[in-house]
Batch of 4 targets.
Target 1
Amino acid sequence: MKFQQSQEMRNLIAAIFVGIFSYFIIKALTDFDIVPGVSYIYNLRGPLIAPNMITVILFDWRGYDTLGEAFILITAVLTTGILFGRGVLGGDVSEKDSTPIRPSTIVQKVFAAPLVFIIVAFGVVITLGGHITPGGGFQGGSVIATAFFLSVVVYGFKKNVFNLSHNSLETLEGVGALIYLCLGLVGLGLSGYYLYNVGADLYPYLGVGDTATRLFSYPDSTNAGIIPYLNIGIALKVLSGFCTIITVLWGAEKK
Amino acid sequence: MNSELIPLMVIFPLISAILLNLMHGKDKVVRAYGILAMLVVLVVPIFASYGNHLFGAHPVVDTLPQLKISLSEVNLAIEYNFAFLQKALVFLLAAIATFAVLSHISNEKKVSGVYLSMIMLSIAAVSAVVMANDIFNMFVFLEIMTIAQAAIVIAVGGVSGYKAAFKYLVFGGVAGASILLGIALLLGTFGVLNISDLHNSLSGNMTNPIVLTAVGLIVIGWLFESGLFPFHTIKSNMYSAAKPDIAALLQTQTKIVLVALAIVLLRLFGGYSNMTAVMLGLSVGTLIIGSVMALLQTDFRRLLAFTAVSQAGLVGIGIGLGTRLGIAAGIFHAINDAIAMSLLFITVYFIYERAKTTEFKRLGGLLVQAPKLAFIQIIGILIVSGVPPFNAYQSEFRIIDATIQAGHPELGVLVILGTILTFVALMKGFYLTFLKENTTKIALGKVHIYNGLPTVTYVTLIILVIACVGIGLFPMPFYDRAYSVALKILVGW
């Protein structure tokens, strides 16, 4: 059997097995009777914390999983950095400054700046109101990152509106992650449980009116506790993570 | 009982990872903080008291009829368990990681904060996987571990490193998706993510086709994360592409994750005899293929990489037997072998650092120049091959014993054969490195154990040998506890 034929045979075998596999998955999914389980209790008690149930599940009930998800993103961003020479063994490979591939037109230059500001404002609103309206840190951060990308595409790296270097982006990402980690430590210190929602004080470890709960009061009528602050940390982290990837890949294109 | 130090075993390495990344470029600060952080990582598991930790303080509550689940109580929070097994595995990981970090700090002219940050992330992830009693949380940290390990290999550079890391990430994506789909099916069917709750819900639902699909999907993930048969080349490529001192850490992490995931699989799906049969069969395949592949290698690092993979197969055989003796012996062997293989990897690290190569055709005649290294390496080879009075003997003997007790004496014969193959392969490596006359022009100069390499690594080797001899002479404190874990898995958590 020639190489070509063996390749074809291999693809055929792979296709058959993928077919069998998909059949079982689809069969499993068709007669699927979904049980609400714990999510029923999450939804029942969630409104005591904040109206946006998705945010409450993400940041309160499963807040520690969200921390893990955030660290998947951080690890991926750092790995991208390593791939392009930051932190490899034997000294960093220096990054080159890069310019836009082709100069922007006057229309782009005029309209990009106000658009960038509007997008950033929109992202900030999504982040700060994440616990009452649809949105949150992940979404707000990615919206702000699009503004960064737009300004980089139109104005290039040196003269863009944000003017953030790779190192300052890394710092921003670190600060975002540290906000999350340290808010969890506050709960550990005050109640003995990591990521305890100190401000909401759902289980009376602290007593309402305590200094700690007042520390995390947020200027709205909800009782969301540390959730808005976690949102801010996540937004900083997601924003700077995406921007770092953009920066690194942009620099790579010119090499 | 709530224990405040349990989350710190994950949170502190995560904080350190962020800080080390921010410190990158400031050489002295990175060195100082790296050593300090590793001390804390080592100390926390020793002082943490046994118990569990509920994240966010969400309690265990009575169920309501609307939940449609058959349990009387349900766990709302993400739960971490910490008992002797977790303590032993987390401490083992911290110890080997400390050696890896110290070796990086003392041997590299320019330390990389990002590299240390990745090591910290992998420590945090593996500790979380070991302690998590929540199947989704386990998945999240498995993903972090996969990416961090790939990054550690990418940082070494070179085509082989990039290729190994790329393959690892591609297959890691498939395996991760497979585990996630399995978890989603379980969550949809039973409505809980806590492993103890799932264990209680599953009993009596064994014939559900959705559960069967989930079992298959999660077993695929287990095979990948443990580097067993269909994925053995991917793991061994990772080990051989990494620096040998970090490869010691990577293979320790693999064995710890193997044990942690296998315990979860047995707790959840222990009722399926087919599942343990699949685990057993693929583990036997890994043992044989790994040791045969080790014989064929022409590079010492690749030889060790395949030996590490075949030893993972040996651990899998013990656990896959599904009997009390087998599970206990498998867990015990995972701990022993992680120490012994780390010893061998670090001896090869000496050679790699001095000669800048580990290919057999360019090595030879090192015995004259480094007699102490040769002595330590021959001890390491004897340990891995299961020679008394060292620790691996105690566990390999118990695995063979367990195969006979379980009614599969032919498996015992295969284990012995695999061990002999491993011994032959390792002795071949030893001969070609130390005993064969050096005919190549790349003479190694005055390679001496004290010459050019710091005492830190040397002390590391001594500590590992002492640990091997210590566990070998007094195995019962460890084995008894592994046995009680096995009892708990089979009887109920």
Target 2
Amino acid sequence: MKRASRLLGAIALGLSAAQPLRAEVAVTLHFLKIDVPAPPTLTSLDVVPEGLGLDGAALAVADNTTTGRFLGQTYRLEQSEVDVDGDVTGAARAALAQTPYLVIDGPAEALLAIADLPEAQGAILFNASAPDAALRSGDCRANLLHTAPSDAMRTDAIAQYLVVRKWTDAVMIVGPHPADKAFAAAMERSLAKFGARLRETKTWGESGADMRRNAAEEVPLFTADFPGHDVVIVADELHDFGRFIPYNTQEPRPVVGSEGLRAEAWAPVVEQWGAAQLQSRFQDHAGRPMEPGDYAAWAAVRAVGEAVTRTGTGDSDSVYAYMTGPEFELAGFKGRPLSFRPWNGQLRQTIPLVHDRALAASAPFEGFLHPVTELDTLGLDRPESACTAFEE
Amino acid sequence: MKHLSALALAAALAGPLAADEIWVTNERDDTISVIDIETLEVVRTIQVGERPRGITFSHDYKVVYICASDSDAVQVMDPASGEILHDLPSGEDPEQFVLHPDNRHLYIANEDDAITTVVDTETRRVIAQIDVGIEPEGMAVSPDGTIAITTSETTNMAHWIDTATQKLFANTLVDSRPRHAEFTEDGTELWVSSEIGGTVTVFDVATQTEKAKIAFEIDGMHPDRIQPVGFEFAAGENHAFVALGPSNHLAVVNMKTYEVEDYILVGRRVWHMAFNADKSLLFTTNGISGDVTVVDVAKRRGIKTIEVGRFPWGAAFRPTN
């Protein structure tokens, strides 16, 4: 019933969205970080920035504010942080008492607990970090939209790339963590989907070897008995051992996946389609390069801003209807308009394939056709998703 | 041989028979390629500041202004010698600009600063800075000089500036990522292209309201790839030629019915364009293929591709007679 009234709202808005409606609108958004302790890794080379995600949300609020100035619309960002073992739903309730717009950096279980709160019915929650397939399928919620790409979107991007390059025989090294295994499962599905072959998978053991000294000896041995392959895929989403694989494989093969050539929602090397401007605004704002987590939070806040601008209201039902409707398009510096998939609330987006020095390519690739949009060749397409929450 | 070409060059510079030129800024080469309209070849390559984009000649063609975005300067060049005469204060990251009909005031979009800067080219002073939306880019000025326009890419608006007060008097929403703006010659219409929205909006200038919206459709091409950016009005203002970015086509739009009559294949990621003197030829900059397509306007098809520098962006016409 709720959804039906929202749909009607979308139709009514479609008629009146041509001109800005000048009315005082004040929108508050809340960035909720659910802290998950990071397991130790082999090196300390990666530092997770203090303001990851939050900095992206704050920049988008500034972007929205600049636009809002001309329309009598103001935006404000609140933030809070809670430990994953703490009172997550309490923190979410406190935020929801102030605003229906929550951008959340947290794991799947926490997202679902929040989405199922009575206080969250009618709210718009954005998943700005969790890559889980289930959240876009059987565990989806109509009040939970995803601006972070799923594992499947990233692995589909890699699989398309491998097929385009005709590097279709792959082997894979998978780390021990659940995130590694989820990425590997998505990768396996993607390779099958696009017709590449996974010839063997090996699990990286939790050996105590100090890779910083031994990589040159251990990795060639570890990769020596792989069957013939064009490419080595690494599933190491915690960035533990993967950094030691490139240039140390027994065969001279490129490394893709979590290391080497990576599929990311965003990276500092993305500069086409006006991205250089977003990068420099972010650098000025946060004093560091923009990461995928920042981009997902930025996109969530900008999506709300875009919907408020076009509808002239801060009412969350109207914003939801417009944002998930066919008129919505977000200019996300990715060369195409971004929009939410009506079957599972996932933000459609191109996926850059990057290494540390440059953007190598951008998925989807030409030749991967789709009846609706080529962007839907990445991730769970309508027939692949078991999500029904978005149906009336 | 050397003497001969030197002589030829001297003749070309001095003689009344020198051919008209198209000047193209190469964003990633920090150069300008000068195309001879008679031979359709690059005859000069001129070093300029970093990341040149917007380019426009003074109305008397005595100087040429170049936005050197990453040098944070508008460079003023003697087009005959190719020498930089001086820089104008421009604000940060100037991308595009427009010269007022008074031939004196330059309205500059400062992409990184959400500001439009107004510079007096004679005193070389900034006379106003106007807060606009995020990533200002498209710039236009009405033929009577009373209105200047800035479009902002992320705010998705056309900002209307009263040039008497240098203040905004209207802000109108357009579709996503507006890129380019032009007034019609009679000053009654303002056209604005939206790259991500995939449309061109036509405004009634008197009321600043939307009069028409033009959408594009190319067989076998997903609408997402059809991205209107630069455009120009043909002679008589019956037709507009609209560059459609990564669709690698121009659209020919009927300016009375606002219907698209034709699509013309050009180079990859077509950006901006300039006509020759009688507007029989159109030169488009193709960012990704690094070349310029010469379009026969009457026949509505490309007749030649001219290789220029990396990421050609802006284009401007220079008469030499």
Target 3
Amino acid sequence: MGKEESPQAARRTTRASCAAASNGEVGRSTITPLHNPTVSDLAFGGEPLSSEDLRSSFPARRPQILELVHLLGPHSSPMLPLFVYGGASTGKTTVILQVFRHLNRPFVYASCRTCYSPRILFESILNQLLLHRKNEANGYSSAKRCEKPSDFVNFLREDVGKVVDSLKDHSGKRKSNKSRRWPKGDILYLIIDNLELVREWDKSSSLLPFLFNLYDILKLPNFALIFVSSSSPDTYYSSMGYIEPIPVFFPEYTEEDLRQLLIRNQANQKLYSCFLDIVLRPFSRVTRRLDELSTVFSSLFQKYCEPLSDTSLFPNDEMKRRLFSHFRPYISPALNEIFWGPSQCLSGIESGKVTRQRGSIRKHEDNEDFTEIGFHMSTAAKYLLISAFLASRNPATLDASLFDSTGGSDNRKRKRKASEKSMEQKETVEQESLMKGPGTFPLERLLAIFQCITSVIDVSIDEEEHGDGFSTDGGNSSWLMSNVLSQLSSLCDANFIAKGGSCPLEGSTRYRCTISEDFALKVARSIKFALPNYLCRR
Amino acid sequence: MAVQSHARDAQNLLRSRLCNPSFVFKALSGSPDSNYSKLKFILSSSVTEACNNSLLLLGPRGSGKTAVLELVLNDLLEEYPDMISVIRLNGLLHNDDNCAFKEISRQLCMEHHLLFSKMASFDDNSQFLIAMLRECGLAHKTIVFVLEEFDLFAQGKQRLLYSLLDAMQSITSQAAVIGISCRLDADQLLEKRVRSRFSHRKLLFLPPSTEIIERLLQHILLLPMDSTLPNDYATQFNTKLESVLADERFKEILKNYLSSSSTINHLLRFLFVAVSSIDVKSGYPSLDNFKTALSSFRRQPKQECIKDCSILELYILTCIRRLESKEQKSYNFNSVMKEYKSIHDQFQTSDDYARNVCLRAFERLLQRDLICFSDNRGQGQSVEFRPVKCLISHFELQEGIKAYRSCPIILTKLLDR
């Protein structure tokens, strides 16, 4: 536990190893097919964890661990259902699983994220109870087919009874079986993780009360339930009541906790602490989630260490200052990149560096890397994307004035001085456009705009190439027909254009362009198209 | 060392008592006007005098309806062996008629060692039920149907209720139907044809009085003198506990807790946490155990959520509240962003972040359930454009921000204006 690089990495490995342990040690079984799963596989595999190890591996979670251990109580003592909640990445699952590893109790773990429907959830729980392993021999099928809650309750009663019997059997003659670690006690715990996702399932209105009442329905003394959820108990209230389980709250880490957690497992802790002095405060103002912070910091720390030849040195004051002055320009762009993955974050900084060498650091934009990445799109697709963007952004009534030289000639004359009322109207219109998002458009309009803008370009290209107006309408439209429709579908697949429902009056499918303005401008720049001229500004 | 192991044993004993409702409710079964005695009288008359009964047990969730019924059934099963068979149904599990009939047949087959066919149709199952009722009636055997979450059976066509209650009208059958519900108007949900066949007998389960609670506390928490625990430890444990129970502060804590949740199961839950937090090293209960239990139930999830937010998330929440106080009907990320920018332009705050960072913070707020989408339409639309609504009140946010450590002063100002 203590050897992993970061707490985040620890969490991942824990989940994986847990699955391996509770599913009957899949990895080992492929090598030794003789290994028969026994009830002992229901406990956490691997070495037991001493209470010191448990506490030292979760420095900021001491009160929660204590509370959990108290509530779980001595072995073989029954427990009322627990409800463990707290924000994402606060260590709920990891702490619980490690506590079970420490106590060496048998448990069944099912996460509603991987078991995404009632049937899969039920069957996965039953498979674990029956020590059933999906493999080639049984055609990767579950031990029992179980769709309805009523079947699940019947099966569960049966299977929990069997498991508990064998646990009791063994607790009688434990001394004879010292070679394998046998789980302690005869209570079977069922841990249901990510419960908040159940709220979005189809039958959530009947399934949630069922899960919350499961303990009372089963009436089994040797069965205990633990729910893990990232949202608080008050978000589960519905018309169907239940006795609320006992709540255990995992608060978000404070800045001090974060420092403790991040500094753990670093090779040069003093250097890292200097680094954290600079970055932790500004970054924790944006987010206090450990997973997001550790991703950003891992790449930033490399930047921080760049001027150092030997990273095992202890930094003195003068060196700290030097490092800081080297590092300072990276902080504020990184703050605005926190949303993105580490690789893009770095490339953004790289481009920032280039501009700084030119002496224009202030001009650095966050999305600079877009131009450098470049899109592998054909020119036609780019034009199509731009026309889709225009169709989404501009009202259909203005198309004539924008693309036809004769259509909107009297537009200027009608411009009057803005009165109070029209200003107000303008505001509400603006409000509406903020709310509504990009508008929808039929295919015909898209094609018309596309033809308009490509015809302008065609003329200019042709003039450059041939020097005479050789291009004809016929050639133009054939290009349109052969290419454009397939391009459109590929743009839809790439999610640049969304296919909406069909309009009930016209009966044709309507499209919607989902790209942002910055992005559209960038695409336009890459094909040297003057997009701003065509955008309607209210 | 000895005290520690005794303490562990004592804790174990108390915990298993708290998790065993029939132990808890046995204490209340003595008096003649208790629900236990009434229910037992009615059911034993069904068994001995072959009169068909139907009744409803009503009361808030956790008031011990099922537990008392189980006690009565267990006692009757002991008194009259082989004369009762119990069929248990739950509205959460069997609320469609087909499934309910199948479950009845399954349980009847189990009980009478018959072969149960999964393939049997609805018609087969209902005929089987009628036949079984007649057979059992001839053998003077009573079938007790327990319908938990009775109100859920009253949804839909109520075919199950109708056929059960209708079968009880015939002279050959000998059965009782007991509905358990936390809806006090459960009998009003019945259709006319069902209602006319129902006896309208109801037993109400009321919240316990102070005397009952005191009696329960003594009954549950005091250690028995004749168990495996050594006598001197048990005596000392009991004297310590008595002094805690007599303490005015303890009564205050208990009153405080029961004022919000007053049923017996809520009390058990409270005692469970208190018993679990008994320090094994010292080995004896103290007032602090009950204080921790109270504080673990007195939670304010929304305040905790606000405390968990980062400062940027608080900014966004404040913007949303400001939009709401401007009486804007609906808003989405874009309008929130506009407000955020205007705040920044006006006050030159140090927390000016790019749009995508704010969007990420906005998504985190969605995850925390502090805001949510106001409609389920437009699934395909991106997050920025979907209208949202705020799930916390102005007051809650104000309190949360006040309690927040190192919160910028500008936020409180912005919120007040």
Target 4
Amino acid sequence: MNGQSSQQQPKDGRHDDDAALTEFLASLMDYTPTIPDELVEHYLAKSGFQCPDVRLTRLVAVATQKFIADVATDALQQCKARQSAVIKDKRDKQQKDKRLILTMEDLSKALREYGVNVKHQEYFADSPSAGLDAASREE
Amino acid sequence: MRGTSLRQKQLPPRLDGVGPISESEFSFTITRVAVAQICHSVGFYGAQNSALEALTDITTRYLEAIGKLGAASSNSDRRTQSNLPDFIVALEDLASIQGFPGLSDIRSHSLWTSAVINDLMKLVKYRDEIPFAQPLPPKRSFVQGAKRKLLKHTGDNKRLYCNGGSWRHVPSWLPPVPVVEEKDKEQKGEVKWECWEEREEEKWDCRRETVERECNNENFQVSGKRGKVRFRMGVGLDNKVVRVRNLRVKGVTAGIGKRVNN
């Protein structure tokens, strides 16, 4: 009896997993990911992935969205940690600098954990006013 | 301003401002907007242009990596179309850098219980959906993509250039694919099951008749005259190796069991 019950357990578990997966795939029909379907289809077709199922396309979109959100969350933590260290020195600029902005520095630190090595210049003039902030601080 | 506001949703113009936007630039721009939306949902107020472009580039590469790994998985199973297990395998491969529960016994467990899929389920269930900022424009043709269809070569041979549509992954420098002409087009259309069985039976009867006719034919002989083959066998003293020399072969269809002279 014990042997039978132990054999039945994984079967039931698998059945539950299948049911959950089927339900999840069905729920994708109503879900709209941030990355549009056409865009995902374009990149998948470019790399040779052929699948007419819309649900799978949306699943790819959801997976990509999750990856980017994870990276962005890590970069946000880096940004917050950096700002908390800087603000100790100058409390008057606390309000101005509180806005969280995605920078190359934080992004490269966050991406290092995901196996992406970003090499960027130590100083990169992103916009004409990129260096003005530092110059005003020195004064 | 140090960064670009993420709320700026209008598509940026082409950097050089010359000529129409190409397909890759167009898709990159749309991805950029989607990535900016995701960053905004995470809690960022703005982003440096370079950082946003780097993240967009990683997004496109991630999408292509999923596609390539999934296609490789399906091709190794002798399929052209990919399915859910292929996608799960691709995703597990990509997630193996960070690690996930159950990575140590990867492939041995059922794919349906994969932790990667469970994470996606939780994301869909608990996170609010953020639809894309603007409705996408209808499908448009690009200047470079004017040939983006299976083009029929108008020359001497019927050949297809596959550099567009769902054949986008085939490089354009490859030679054209020859057209496979289907001999019996009747089978291509829908045929009733009973009719199809009858037709198959007729074909079998025809084949059987021809085989029987050939076997009963008394004049049935092997066509063509067989040539003569001569060999000389001896021991080569120089290299102490037994040599077999083929002296002369007459005719092309020299067979085994013919006369051999020492």
